[in-house]
Specification:
Blueprint lengths: L1 H13 L13 E7 L2 E8 L2 E9 L4 E5 L4 E6 L4 E6 L5 E5 L4 E8 L3 E8 L4 E5 L4 E4 L13 E6 L3 E6 L6 E6 L7 E7 L8 E7 L4 E9 L3 E9 L6 E6 L10 E7 L2 E6 L3 E6 L6 E2 L18 E3 L4 E9 L4 E8 L4 E7 L1
Antiparallel strand pairs: 1-2, 2-3, 4-5, 5-6, 6-7, 8-9, 9-10, 10-11, 12-13, 13-14, 14-15, 16-17, 17-18, 18-19, 19-23, 20-21, 21-22, 22-24, 25-26, 26-27
């Protein structure tokens, strides 16, 4: 167990935030080009056009609102730099709260930071007023070991995803105000197994997808993808990475397009699974109402990439383009475009 938690802390320290987990799509997107470089890009004349490159370290996280700004969070200096995409003007603000950042989200009004608890686990920076707020956390969630591991957003709600310590929750905040966000409600999540760590979320108009890892003495580390059919969180199904004893795979990224779940696997490459209504099971159909139903994914088809690993998936929704960021055995990155 100690080894598993140490692995999580190590991985978290190297995570960056590339995509935006929201419904609104702007003309700009981020891509990782080198082990220590990312760029802000546009899609023009059926080509990726690089606008500006940024270097980064393992102590930094970055994201974009896809319309106006790029945000770079420096965990070591405990500050955030906001850069205007068109003018290149930038300003830096010190984070006034004791928080260990894990994820960031930027829209045209606010920057949100979720993290492991120092004194806070979810904070907000209003871009217009240039003012910080700490967001309310329910007492059931606010105890030692808790953290916010990812943030997704729709038209009316900021959705913060709780971390490894069970029970896990999803917190919902109203986006109706340009001031400090108010807690709307929260939901308890079903589990995929012991010591589960949720580290990524994706949202569409119909689905919420989560990637997580679990650890047990019997199975070791297992990756899961869980799909909820709406934000009521009442019906779901999961895919497991170790259903076949002879082959273990890991999930590196997912995107959801219409009724298709697109999966990036380190070992298997690119997979596509149709999301069917019959896959979803409600709480009263699952074991003790605590665990997700595991879907048999033995018929899933993957496209393998020889000597390359998919490290990130990027959707240009308004162009129906999927961009695969691939890394070869020498650590070199390239981008491949696919029509959806």
């Amino acid at each position: 167990m100690i080894k598993f938690f140490s692995t999580i802390l190590f991985l978290t320290s190297f995570f960056t935030v590339l995509g935006q987990n929201g419904l609104k799509v702007g003309p700009y997107f981020l891509l990782q080009d080198k082990p220590n470089e990312f760029s802000i890009n546009s899609y023009t004349n059926n080509q990726i056009k690089k606008l500006k490159a940024f270097s980064f370290t393992e102590k930094q996280m970055f994201t974009t609102d896809q319309e106006n700004m790029v945000a770079i969070l420096d965990k070591e200096k405990s500050n955030v730099t906001l850069i205007d995409i068109k003018s290149a003007k930038e300003y830096t603000r010190k984070i006034p709260y004791n928080i260990i950042p894990i994820t960031i989200f930027l829209n045209n009004e606010n920057l949100f930071i979720g993290g492991e608890m120092g004194e806070e686990i979810l904070i907000q920076f209003n871009l217009k007023k240039k003012k910080w707020f700490k967001l309310k956390i329910p007492d059931e969630v606010l105890y030692e070991g808790k953290a916010i591991d990812d943030i997704v957003i729709n038209d009316s709600l900021l959705i913060a995803i709780d971390n490894i310590v069970w029970p896990k929750y999803v917190l919902f905040y109203k986006l109706i105000s340009k001031k400090k966000l108010k807690l709307s409600h929260y939901k308890k999540l079903k589990s995929n197994g012991p010591a589960e760590w949720i580290y990524q979320g994706r949202i569409t108009e119909n689905y919420l997808g989560l990637i997580s890892k679990t650890f047990s003495l019997y199975d070791g580390v297992t990756d899961y993808i869980t799909i909820y059919n709406d934000l009521d969180m009442e019906s779901s199904f999961s895919l497991s990475s170790n259903q076949n004893d002879e082959e273990y795979i890991t999930f590196t990224d997912i995107v959801i397009v219409g009724k298709e779940l697109i999966i990036a696997s380190k070992e298997k490459g690119l997979g596509i699974i149709e999301i069917k209504n019959s896959y979803f099971k409600s709480n009263d159909e699952t074991i003790y109402n605590l665990f997700n139903t595991i879907l048999d994914n033995s018929e899933s088809k993957f496209e393998e990439f020889e000597n390359e690993t998919i490290v990130d998936l990027t959707i240009i929704s308004n162009k129906q383009i999927l961009i695969l960021t691939l890394k070869d055995e020498d650590g070199k990155y390239r981008h491949q475009m696919r029509k959806l």
